[in-house]
């Protein structure tokens, strides 16, 4: 792999955003994901290769470490911050059509639930995996999910819930999406959610963590 792409991937894994970022301390004063991505593009490395070989690879590594209990939420958040800084330089290439997203992922916390940490983590890791993310926020009713699905044909949907009291809301959203847009793939997750519950309510997959969501999306893409 190109050494510059390897350095960008390392910055994503370590959460090194830019040269002036104080974190991580052992990388103080070094170029971060932002500067290195800009340099890679300036040197003519294709934007789609920067995305796949640096950003996606870096987010995959930190996601796997998180799944294995070797990295934690603060680590994931810093990696996502570095990824976003790099992604800012790639956005013009997405807009021009030179680089294409793998697909669209609509995500939200279900109606009645105001928790967003888990949903935000999933959104950031999925975005780092090369997907366009449409984040509907929290306390999202079925109608809002349905509207987003209609506006983004072929999208996948992610539902998050932290409270057991909002699990019936999740079931209702799955039911209504499947009734009106039966081909829509739906992933569910959250502290009280299980694989068995996903099967019970007709969801297509259960993701125990952000990396699980990315793996499912990539397999089904």
Outline the secondary-structure elements:
Layout: H1 3-14, H2 33-42, H3 47-67, H4 73-96, E1 104-109, H5 117-128, E2 132-135, H6 142-151, E3 156-160, H7 167-180, E4 185-189, H8 195-201, E5 205-206, H9 210-220
Parallel strand pairs: 1-2, 1-3, 3-4, 4-5
Helix pairs in contact: 1-2, 1-3, 1-4, 2-4, 3-4, 4-5, 5-9, 6-7
Would you kindly provide a written description of the structure presented here, covering whatever features stand out?
This protein has helices at residues 3-14, 33-42, 47-67, 73-96, 117-128, 142-151, 167-180, 195-201, 210-220, and strands spanning 104-109, 132-135, 156-160, 185-189, 205-206. By secondary structure, it is α/β, with parallel strands linked by helices. It folds into 2 domains: 3-96, Orthogonal Bundle (Methyltransferase, Methionine Synthase (B12-binding Domains), Chain A, domain 1), CATH 1.10.1240; 104-220, Rossmann fold (3-Layer(aba) Sandwich), CATH 3.40.50.280. The radius of gyration is 18 Å and the shape is globular. The mean pLDDT is 92.
Keyphrases for this structure?
Methyltransferase, Methionine Synthase (B12-binding Domains), Chain A, domain 1, single chain, 9 helices, five-stranded parallel beta sheet, Rossmann fold
Number of domains: 2
Biggest β-sheet strands, sense, barrel: 5 strands, parallel
Q: Kindly identify the CATH topology of the largest domain.
A: Rossmann fold
User: Whole-Å distance between the termini?
Assistant: 25 Å
CATH architectural group of the largest domain:
3-Layer(aba) Sandwich
Helix-strand string? HHHHEHEHEHEHEH
Q: Can you give the mean pLDDT?
A: 92
State the shape: globular
Helix content: 40-55%
CATH class of the largest domain: Alpha Beta
Biggest sheet: strand arrangement: 2-1-3-4-5
Oligomer: single chain
């Amino acid at each position: 792999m190109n050494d510059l792409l390897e350095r960008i991937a390392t910055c994503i894994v370590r959460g090194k955003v830019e040269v002036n970022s104080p974190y991580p301390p052992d990388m103080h004063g070094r170029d971060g994901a932002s500067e290195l991505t800009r340099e890679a593009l300036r040197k003519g490395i294709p934007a789609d290769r920067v995305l796949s070989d640096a950003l996606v690879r870096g987010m995959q590594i930190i996601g796997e470490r998180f799944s294995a209990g070797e990295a934690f939420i603060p680590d994931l958040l810093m990696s996502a911050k570095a990824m976003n800084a790099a992604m800012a330089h790639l956005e013009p290439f997405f807009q021009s059509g030179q680089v294409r997203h793998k697909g669209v992922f609509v995500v939200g916390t279900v109606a009645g639930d105001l928790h967003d940490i888990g949903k935000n983590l999933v959104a950031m890791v999925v975005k780092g995996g090369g997907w366009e993310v449409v984040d509907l926020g929290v306390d999202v009713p079925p109608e809002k999910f349905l509207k987003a699905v209609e506006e983004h044909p072929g999208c996948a949907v992610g539902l998050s819930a932290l409270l057991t009291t909002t699990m019936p809301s999740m079931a209702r959203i799955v039911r209504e999406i499947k009734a009106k847009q039966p081909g829509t793939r739906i992933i569910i997750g959250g502290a009280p959610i299980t694989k068995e519950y996903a099967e019970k309510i007709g969801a297509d997959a259960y993701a125990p963590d952000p990396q699980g969501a990315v793996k499912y999306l990539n397999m089904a893409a």
